[in-house]
Amino acid sequence: MKSLQAQLHFAFPLHILALLALMPGPAMPAENEMAIVPFQVEIPQQDLDDLQDRLANTRLPDQIPNTSWEYGTERGYLEELLLYWQHEFDWRAQEARLNQFDQFKTEIDGVEMHFIHQRSSAPDAIPLLIVHGWPGSVSEFLDIIPPLTDPAEHGGNVEDSFHIIAPSLPGFGFSGIPAARGFSPERIAHVLAALMERIGYESYAIAGGDWGAIINRHLANHYPDRLIGLHSNMILAPPPADEEQRDRATEEELALTSARAAYMQNETGYQQIQGTKPQTLGYGLTDSPAGTAAWIVEKFHGWTDMPQGADGDLDEHFPKDDLLTNISIYWFTGTITSSTRIYYENRNTPVEKPIEYIDVPTGAAIFPAEIYLAPRAWVEAAYDLCHWTVMPRGGHFAALEQPELYLNDLREFFRLLR
Is 91 helix (H, G, I), strand (E, B) or coil? Predict the structure, then answer.
């Protein structure tokens, strides 16, 4: 193709052409924007001191006597959690847990992306991109990364080895905060595809729940040829258009689907706020560690498999250290507001490529207290379903709540595809 100057030679005076000659060519990514640089978590001591001051000056709301979690986060539990955060929780120890893994940053689509990239020594290890959601973070995966990358050291088989890539989503945790509109799950899927390409993986597997499951559907929809397989612990599928296939759902499955939908009717207030006015919410949460903790921990209580319902004891399912590591990541990085914007962007960003059918081998892990359940026949109509496991227990935060069940299901599914 002729140069711009040559194409315009007869249309512009010479002095204008001279100016055009001095203009830069098409913008290319700067070298530092393409670089992948090592990263370690190092929260300044002044931020830890500030947290201590804020916790010491916490002002809590009243609570109606003889109530529990039905109005929201239960005050007695939150008081215990905040006292533990102030007097017993050791952030530096959790920081060391994070820093045991190889971590990096790189810039993609104008956002600094943080990711764990822990390689296995096994020659046939599968690259596995594992994606968190809200209100989660990469801390959900800290206990499962070692047995995935080095199963032989954790009672498993070396044949089940994975290279693990666990990114912090844009606007979450140690990743940068988007300065522009439109970072919807679909756009984030493009970011993650670009990340895997930059790391050097031409073919890889994906897994995740919550927004991770939604983002991964978009990734599979746009880049099926790059994917070995898709594993989801929150498998999404609408009722099939085909009436015969829709009617293949069993009465038991439909009852479970209906029950979870009824339960979630009282669990979606946060979605309405985060999907419409996340900025207003952010002022209170960003200024108050107690507010951040209450907002996040309510979801861990409501979406965990607790037979006792509203009176269930969260301590029986998650150590306070695990909950506070996740909460602290949001607090120290100041990303509670930017993380909630994914709900707004999901509502207000036009879909580039609607999802009709996921033509990627798919495995589904069905945990009974998941916030959304779909009948198997519906999933079969929407995915190339190869693996289906109904779990005996567990809820939304599967990798943290039921790590052994989750690990075993990942291994069983991907054995089919090795």
Answer: helix
